[in-house]
Design goal:
76% of the residues lie in helices and 0% in strands. By secondary structure, it is mainly α. The radius of gyration is 14 Å and the shape is elongated.
Length: 114
């Protein structure tokens, strides 16, 4: 089955998580701590769930982790949209998270439920 780092979805999710952490470091203020903490957790959850699911091998557990990863990608997008509405420049991150969502979704659709 290879290594989880070979998954295109994991590679894209890992890049997104790094981008999110950089954004949070640049824009963090005490009054926005909650939103940036949640954003970091959601973004980091995507590659971590892909890695953990891959470690479980094919089947139900992997699909479950893919579902969690997808949900976390959706949450990341929602938070980025919230920040954008508050005037924070998210520099192409919405396109990045959209790509991650699509990759995780396709991976889940191609993974048999067994």
């Amino acid at each position: 089955m290879g290594d989880y780092r070979d998954l295109r979805a994991w590679q894209a999710a890992d890049r997104l998580a790094h981008s999110v952490f950089n954004l949070a470091e640049q824009h963090w203020r005490p009054q926005d701590a909650t939103i940036y903490d949640q954003l970091r957790r959601a973004a980091l959850s995507v590659p971590l769930n892909l890695a953990e699911g891959h470690a479980c091998g094919p089947g139900k557990r992997f699909r479950w982790h893919l579902g969690v990863a997808y949900g976390s990608a959706v949450e990341t997008e929602a938070i980025l949209r919230f920040l954008l509405a508050r005037g924070v420049t998210v520099d192409g991150m919405l396109q990045q998270v959209s790509s991650v969502r699509a990759l995780v979704y396709r991976l889940r659709e191609r993974t048999p439920p067994e």
